[in-house]
Automatic annotation (TrEMBL):
PANTHER family in the cross-refs: POTASSIUM CHANNEL PROTEIN 2-RELATED-RELATED, TRK SYSTEM POTASSIUM UPTAKE PROTEIN TRKA
Domain RCK C-terminal span(s) in chain numbering: 137-219
Protein name stated in the entry: Trk system potassium uptake protein TrkA
Keyword DNA-binding on entry: no
Length: 224
């Protein structure tokens, strides 16, 4: 996969190292000479230029990229980069960093953003996930489909602890995607039994009733 990353700060370099480690081809762009820390990501291609300008994106052959990542510290720049990548170069997938959560509403398909990543929101979710047992935590929202990834650590006294997955009627548009038990991920089957302290990961559609899922996890299946 060929990936162009605009923004060679700590976030951009970290993404580049991960992608290179998985065998992908990466180009890093930044307009600040101080960001040209080539030795830290030596296997990437580097370009000192402004990714908000069309000649720069032409120079890195954005039209041949599979993904463009707008990872600068400037939300306006990230929106422009995503918009140009999508509309001028037809990049199949754009990922944009949201620095200020107040700007999150703008990062959608109208601006050419396929996936928006809000670092503060993810960090908040990770903090909540680490300290909260028995509460649903929204880990991530897919901006294109509006699907959510939700997590809950099942309390030991949960009414659904001890039930088999197949015995539970999950709310509409709600899928139990994984069970994490003792740091081991389990692909849930109908015969798997839920246990207290299990970490449950759900994928929910845009029309899912989160309160119904929370009621099920808190009070158990409704009596028929």
């Amino acid at each position: 996969m060929r990936v162009v990353i605009a923004g060679a700060g700590s976030v951009g370099r970290s993404i580049a190292r991960e992608l290179l480690g998985h065998g992908h081809e990466v180009t890093l762009i930044d307009r600040q000479p101080s960001a040209m820390r080539v030795a830290q990501v030596a296997d990437a291609d580097w370009l000192l230029a402004d990714a908000c300008e069309l000649p720069t994106l032409r120079q890195v052959k954005a039209d041949e990229a599979d993904v463009v990542v707008a990872a600068t510290g400037d939300d306006k720049a990230n929106l422009v980069i995503a918009f140009l990548a999508k509309t001028e170069f037809g990049v199949p997938r754009t990922v944009a960093r949201v620095n200020n959560p107040k700007n999150e509403w703008m990062f959608d398909e109208a601006w050419g953003v396929d996936v928006a990543v809000s670092t503060p929101r993810i960090m908040t979710a990770m903090v909540e996930e680490a300290v909260t047992v028995g509460d649903l935590v929204r880990i991530f929202t897919f901006h294109q489909s509006r699907a959510d990834i939700l997590e809950i650590t099942l309390p030991v006294d949960s009414p659904i602890a001890g039930l088999r997955v197949g015995q539970i009627a999950w709310p509409p548009d709600t899928v139990l995607a994984a069970i994490v038990r003792d740091a081991r991920p389990i692909a849930p089957s109908a015969d798997d039994t839920l246990e207290g302290r299990d970490e449950l990961l759900f994928v929910t559609g845009r029309d899912a009733d989160e309160s119904a899922l929370e009621a099920l996890l808190t009070h158990g299946p409704a009596a028929s």
